[in-house]
């Protein structure tokens, strides 16, 4: 597969926890919302969770094998990017995506609803050919 990953050509910087700009570590790239985009509601919820949990300043979005359709979404907090990560600032949240997951996530939107029925985070992935009814796994 020789798909290109959306990246920015501007200098590689991102805001750190105290609001200033800091250079990204070697091997980490700056991406854009063509890779992954959070809705304002998802950004607000994640920002609140980041502050409450205190487990890092970044949201990591990854794809792993498993789930009822073969691939599943994983969300977790991370203290810093790793070599090979792509950092996307979207809805005020720094999101980390590893280069392997980026191939499956390209163009994905993440939304959040606090509805009592069918609420929570919802992925809209244009690469998914099928997904399960709970929306946590998909196939390509």
Q: Would you identify the regions where 5 or more consecutive residues have pLDDT less than 50?
A: 1-21
Specify the oligomeric state: single chain
CATH topology: Hypothetical Protein Aq_1857, Chain: A
Question: How many E-type strands?
Answer: 12
Q: Mind telling me the CATH class?
A: Mainly Beta
Strand order of the largest sheet: 3-7-8-5-6-12-11
Span of the ends, CA to CA: 14 Å
Written account of the structure:
The chain is of the alpha/beta class. A hairpin with a 5-residue loop joins strand 5 and strand 6 (71-78). Helix content is 15%, strand content 39%. The strands form 3 sheets. The chain has a 7-stranded mixed β-sheet. The radius of gyration is 15 Å and the shape is globular. It has 2 helices and 12 strands, in the order ββββαββββαββββ. It has a single domain, classed as Hypothetical Protein Aq_1857, Chain: A (Sandwich), CATH 2.60.300.12.
Describe the SSE topology.
Layout: E1 13-15, E2 21-23, E3 29-30, E4 36-38, H1 40-53, E5 58-65, E6 71-78, E7 85-90, E8 93-98, H2 99-105, E9 108-113, E10 120-124, E11 130-131, E12 137-139
Parallel strand pairs: 3-7, 4-9, 5-8
Antiparallel strand pairs: 1-2, 5-6, 6-12, 7-8, 9-10, 11-12
Summarize the model shown.
The chain has two helices and twelve strands. By secondary structure, the protein is an alpha/beta fold. Strands 3-7-8-5-6-12-11 form a seven-stranded mixed sheet.
């Amino acid at each position: 597969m020789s798909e290109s990953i959306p990246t920015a050509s501007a200098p590689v910087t991102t805001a750190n926890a105290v609001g200033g700009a800091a250079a990204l570590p070697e091997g980490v790239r700056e991406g854009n919302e063509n890779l992954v985009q959070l809705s304002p509601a998802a950004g607000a919820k994640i920002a609140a969770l980041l502050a409450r949990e205190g487990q890092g300043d970044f949201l990591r979005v990854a794809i792993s094998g498993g789930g009822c359709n073969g691939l599943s979404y994983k969300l977790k907090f991370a203290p810093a990017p790793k070599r090979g990560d792509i950092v996307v600032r979207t809805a005020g949240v720094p999101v980390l995506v590893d280069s392997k997951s980026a191939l499956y996530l390209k163009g994905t939107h993440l939304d959040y609803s606090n509805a009592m029925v069918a609420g929570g985070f919802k992925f809209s992935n244009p690469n998914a050919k099928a997904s399960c009814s709970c929306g946590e796994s998909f196939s390509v």
